[in-house]
Every structure is written in C-alpha cells, then in structure tokens.
TrEMBL record:
<feature type="compositionally biased region" description="Basic residues">
    <location>
        <begin position="40"/>
        <end position="50"/>
    </location>
</feature>
<feature type="signal peptide">
    <location>
        <begin position="1"/>
        <end position="20"/>
    </location>
</feature>
<feature type="region of interest" description="Disordered">
    <location>
        <begin position="40"/>
        <end position="75"/>
    </location>
</feature>
<keyword id="KW-0732">Signal</keyword>
<protein>
    <recommendedName>
        <fullName>F-box domain-containing protein</fullName>
    </recommendedName>
</protein>
Amino acid sequence: MDPGLFWTFLVSLHITIMSAESPGQKHGFKAFVSNALRPKKSRQTLRKASRSTTDLRLAARPSVDEGPPPPMPAPPMPELAPLHAHRLKYKELHAQVDSQLGERRDYTEIIHSLGTVGVDDDVGEVYEHNDRRPPGEGDIASLSPKLWARIASFLNPAEAASLAIASITLYRRLGPRHFMALEYPENLPYKITFLAGLDRSLPAHLLCIPCARYHVRTQRGTERLRPTHVLNPLFNCPNSTNALNPPPRHRITHGRMLPFTFVQLTMRAHRFGPSYGLTPDTLGRRWQRDDWSHTSRFHVHSGRLLMRVTSQTFAAPGLTPSAQRMLLFSREDYWPYFSACAHWRDGELMPACKCALEHIPRPRSTGGLQGLEHRVKDRWAGDIFDPNALTTLCGFCRPMRRCPECPTEYLIEVKLCEDRADGRFKQAITVTRWSDLGDGKTPHGIQWAAINGKRDDYNSFQHEHYAKRGIASIFESAFTADTLPGQRVISLNPKNKKLGEKGHDWY
C-alpha cells in the first residue's frame, strides 16, 4: 500500500473517533438549544509567537537551544475616557475662585459645570483652599470710621448693632453707640429683634420679652403648656406677675392662652435642634370646659408655626336668639367659647354660627290637629321625618371663611355625634379654626401681630403664602392624604366694616 494513502486513512479515522466522543457535535433540537445557551468562551484570542510558526503547540514549546522565552511586555494602559478627561480639565479651571468671596469668577464656567461635574464629585475640594485665605480685617480697616458710620446710618438700630458685633475691627470703627441706641424705649422692638439673632449660641436660655434679656430655662426640655389659671414660669423673671408689663400671649379659647415663649421654643427646636426647645406635637392638647370640648394641634410649615383648634358642643334644635347667645358666648368676657382671632366681631362669623344652629331639624308635635296635619302632609309627600338626619347647611353658613386682616380661616359644621353621657346621638355644632402664628422670633412679626389685632396693614388674600392655597389645605395635607371637602373660601368681612364692639351683629 502506498504510504501516503495509509497516513491519510489513519488521520481520517482519528477525526471520526474524536467527533463521535465529543458531546458538542450531537445533532437534534435538544443539542441545538444546549449549544445556544452555553456561555461564550473568553474573547481573548491567542497570539502567535512568530509569523513563521504555523503550529501553535510547537511555538508554545520552548526549544533546548534557545532556552526559556523572554517575558511578555505589559500591555500599555488605555487612555482616559474623553468625558473623564473633560471633567478633570474643568475641575482645574473651577478651582480658580475668588479668595475673598469664595465665588467663581466666570459665569460661563458656572453654567458649563452643570454638565461636567458629576453627582458623586466632591465639590468641597474646589473650596478647600478658601479656609487658608488671608483675613479680611485689613480691607475693613482700610475704610475710614466716617465711611463706616455713613454705611450704618442707612440701617435700622438692630441691623447697625449686628454690623458692629460682626468683628472686632467693625466694633472699633463703629463704637458702642449703636448698642446704646437699643436701650431707648422707642427702640425696644429693634432690641428684641437684635437679641433674637443670638438664639443659636444660647440653647439653655430663653429671650424674655418684657425684660428684653435672656433668662436661664428652669424647665429645660420639660416645658409643658398649662391652663391659664396655673402658674407655669419657664424662667425666673421679675416681671412674671407684673400686670402692667405682661408677656405676649394669644387667646386660644376661653380659659386657654398660648404664651409666645412656647412659640419661641417650638421654632428654635425646628431651626437649631431638639436641645433648643420643643417639638410641635408637645403643644397639642384636649380639654373640656363649659360643655365645650376642644382639640388643638400644631405643625411647622415653611419656617412658620400653624395651629388648628377644633371646638364642639351639642346644640338643641329650635334655640331662641337668647339661647344661642348663651350657647356661643362666655358671660365672663363675652368672647366665643370656641377659638377666634381678634377680628371676630367684624364680619359674619357669629351670624354664620347662628345660621348653622337654625338648620338643626326641629321635632314636630304629634298630638292634636297640628300633629295630624303634619302626619297627613308627610304621608302625602312620601317623606318620613327623622330628627337625627344629616343636616345640610345653606350657602351663607357652609363656605369656609378667611379673615382678611390676619392669617386665620374658619369652618362651621353641624354633625351628628354620640353623647357618651346617655349613649344617644345628637346634633352638635363644630367650629374649626386654622391660624398662622409666625416664625416665633419676635412678637412684632407680621403674623403674630396681625392675629392679636396689633397691625392694620395685613391682607391675607394678597399674602404670598396664602394667595393661592388656604391655610387649612396646607395644614391637613401634612397629616393625611385625604383632603377636605371642596369648600368655597370667602371673606369673613366682605363689607370691610371695622366697628368692633360698637357693632350689633356680633352679639
């Protein structure tokens, strides 16, 4: 036999045996699916040792004469990605900031950095060298005292004193005259405003408004809101019992007052931390007095303290005008039993409450000819009289009212509630009030002063916070996903009459 044919036969036989033993060469649908789902091999391709070598196994085997092959050189490091190189480039440019103000010099770089600086980039590295910038006292001292005095003349006493206390150089230029000006009686509001700016550095003290100075808190962390007849001093003050110089407070309901110090504590804790005051939840209370039940709750929104007071009492149907007054007013100070602002006499608050009482269904007499007439009319109309039916208010007493002179809203309702004394359901009138108490810095703030009737330049319908959204909507959305029923918000005093006690509609 020819040797070439013999070797060809052996090679073909070897290939046939190897293909029969390999599991990857099976045919059929099952083998096709298994081969398709098999993980791919490494994408690294084998490189030839030399161009002249045709057999890879011989090329990988070292020869005796040549010795071991030299080590392969390390692959070159890939260049930076274009986007990453772009970020590094602009980081170097952004590091050039003003050493005095810490601001970037070019506005184009500010806009361009919005797309180049990543979310995880440390922006603090840009301003790291600003901590070692030279002090600015030299620039302050370069201006004459007359020029600084001219600058302070355009400021109010509180702002001028704050400028003088900013640094020792400014104090030397301006002198103590701006602090002495705060001691004048006419500058008492400015003094309180200046002292309120020191709250951050005095967590264990509280600003006393009658004394215009800080006192040490005697009940730090345990302050609680008490009724009016309970003496509850939060610090030792010589004017605590001085009736001629009382601390600022707001009337919540009959027998309940909200001192301004609790508003201070709540807003201090909101701004600086829990060690500075109280949380809004600690101010909420439930109490009963003069057959009225009250519930108060507080909430902080956009740096201001909001309050909601819900007052409720059972009302009999068919009350006479004198009985309505006895139900709504206190005979001690002739204020409503429910919570109201200082402008409740001007407008339609009390007429709306009396109108709501008129809608309580009256029981019909069932005896005599009149009762027979009622029964015949009900049978003819197909109606059944139910004294405990749901009460529907009219267009005058149903809408929500907003006081135009202070941030306060009212909602009057007549509900069917259970009387736990006898276990029966009765009609009850409910008056809910929402108010904005202000930022709690000074009692001369616009919200607090307007609610207490000490400002005449406030217009709640034109205020930026409540021009498009009501106080009640803001408050209720913070506690529940459900919203109040759609109510039309109208003015509490549409005719803008300010008669006070001289008017006759409030009583």
